[in-house]
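REVIEWER CHECKLIST
Item 1: Sequence provided? yes
Item 2: Single chain? yes
Item 3: Sequence as submitted:
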Amino acid sequence: MAANSSNVAVVMVPFPEYGHQTPFLHLSRLISSYDIPVHYVSIGARNQELKRRLQGSNLDQFPNIQFHDLSIPSTKAEKEAEEEEEEEDEDDYMSYFASLELLGEPLCAICHELLNTCKRVVIIHDSIMLSVVQGVISITNVETYIFHVISAFTVCSLFQQVSGSAENYDLFFPLQPHIPSFQSCYPPEMLEFIEMLRDWTFKSGEIFNTCRDIEGLYLDALAKQSEKPLWGLGPLINPVYLQNDEYSASPKIVSHRCIEWLDKQPKNSVIYVSFGTARTFSLEQIIELALGLERSEQKFIWVLREADKKGNDFTTDVPKIELPIGFEDRVAERGIIARDFVPQMEILAHPSTGGYLFHSGWNSFLESLIMGVPMATWPIHSDNPFNDVLITKVLKVGLVVKDWEHRDELVRANTIENGVRDLMTSTEGEEMRQRAIELSKAIKMSVKDGGAIKKQTESFIAHITR
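Item 4: Structure as written out by the authors:
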């Protein structure tokens, strides 16, 4: 049933990188389904790339979503970062953050324009876009809501470390040997931001891309610390995959050679290998990964492509990464090396996919969990190491291939070989699969009428349209 929303408009302000924009778009679709107009505000090149990539999402079905393509001047730091072939410098990354503040002025203009036709503007912004939304705080009839696209476990852990409080001591004490330090995951400049986020009072509430079945303890802990309401509206993924328990019941959303190949493989026989869009491995590490996959004797799909670039000028050119001589010929019968953008959700949903080796990214974790696919973790940066603890130590739906303590070391082929085999063929791996399947079933029940996630969504919609 549509909400009484004629006097409300929602403005989405994501951080302009794919891993942040995707959950924002899924949240936009969810809100717009209640007959609420949604304005999706981001850098134009990123908006276009997002729409190209989003699998199975016919945006024509959501006429209530309007995209606003903004631009910012390219800074010297951005250009240098785009030209850098090795791991990007943290100073360049922080300069990119600073350049985004220029989006504040057009955002204010959008709000003023919307207030000519509606009584209230609801801004939902990425937690790391605080500086961008500061200007709208003084505008009458504008409310702001923080949307955390990272896990509640990560946010709770970071706040705990920054404050030094003993409030959640019992919650984190058993995990203390495994939880990474803030300093090991983020540049020093981020400490000030985390403190600002923790103490931010210019908000009407907070949203998380998670649910009680996954992170109930941590959502409760954060709710106790906040004076404003908090909602867990996730997992925010394509709803097609939340509504069907079996792959055969889901429409085949895309046609891709990986799917055609999976159709010919036995159930749970293929490990999907992908490390997101934010980092590129060294050539030496790629060689070890290739040899490890080969020696594991397991079937695999390996996504091997350069990381996305920041800024306005997104390019779809994909440089070819060289592999060991003869590798592709030797594994041709049991492996696919994909150098293009693949339909990840469709791959994870396929019954032949039995495991996922990945960077412990939050979006990818949610997608894998919904599909009941166990994971092998290899955290790379920022929130990844925190998610790794949740996946392997709390939920126990995955095993560690590379632990964060040895993040600067090369992962040798034998370690990769053993991790892949353990996930795909061991009793421990099968137990992880069963736990993932049970969690998946619980979440799919929770999004139905009367379920906890459905109730959370209805509560949020009622709140913003009151």
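Item 5: Key structural point noted by reviewer: Residues 245-443 form a domain with the Rossmann fold fold (CATH 3.40.50.2000).
Item 6: Recommendation: ____
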